[in-house]
Specification:
By secondary structure, the protein is α/β, with parallel strands linked by helices. It is about 40% helix and about 15% strand.
Amino acid sequence: MPAPSALRRGLAAVAALPLLTLAACGYGSQAKDDGAARVAAGAKRIDGLDSVKIGYFGNLTHGTALVGMQKGFFQKELGATRAEPAVFNAGPSEIEALNAGSVDIGWIGPSPALNGYTRSAGKNLRIIGGSASGGVKLVVNPDKVTSLKDVEGKRIATPQLGNTQDVAFLNWVAEQGWKVDPQSGKGDVTVVRSDNKVTPDAFASGSVDGAWVPEPTASKLVAEGGRVLLEESSLWPDGKFVITNIIVRQDFLKKHPKVVEAVLRGSVRTNQWINAHPDAAKRAANERLAQDSGKALPAAVLDQAWKSIRFTDDPLASTLGTEAEHAVKAGLLQKPDLKGIYDLAPLNEVLKAEGEPTVDDAGLGVG
């Protein structure tokens, strides 16, 4: 196994950050769970399991998980096996919980998925589906930054060292011909690693001049007077790139394939409903955010954020490989062997049964 890279060290350090509310197991916060009320009379447990633990973030880019949990799509497919939610602030913490068996299936960004897979030499997790594309923006103070070239010399926030947005911003900076030390964040642009919860305050106080962040943080900055200077989707072919995947513990997938299939079916049907009912879906996502965190998003922030996210079952596997290349170029990741990171066979079975097109693993599947 190769020596730890800067990305791995950075993400491992972030894993120690406090979470929303520590649960008894030590991982994530136990979101209020009313899933039991949606168990149909006479429903049976799948694979004999009492529950399946589902992890996700309180981000709109995890909207499939938010809506699926809130509207009972997962619970309906799981029968009497309870869908137990666990909410995380950071990808490394969710990976840690997955490895410890405290989470079975999770919604997560590409960088932590890459890191979790490579750190375990491909033995601990699989990506089994996609969830969302887009929803990432560079928002700036319009009094200080009026064009892309004005970003040089400014202080720009990203969520954490080596996370998905941090890698994307460092790659974009390099493409402008500017140099930044990836560890310290110092250089032609100063990269400030700032938790999404505190970035809006930092922006309002003027301690950062902008931020490369996911939704809803980007729209919170706009509400503070910021201006969207760049949408990351504009940098990708067809405007598509993976922002959220579905992952599973490999041993759980092997032992409980019917449960995994049920969650995937719930995800596919959630995305169908989201795309058919966008206004109702964003309200459901906001209701779940309020239930999980105690605070809903203001309507203006919610509306702005939701329209920039595309919900999809396709994991957009080719873009994961590109994101890994960006991390390697930035000096945050040693060149990984990603063969086997995907197992899309269960998802494709669900998609075929639903009359939906199947998806491709870009040659990075188990076989």
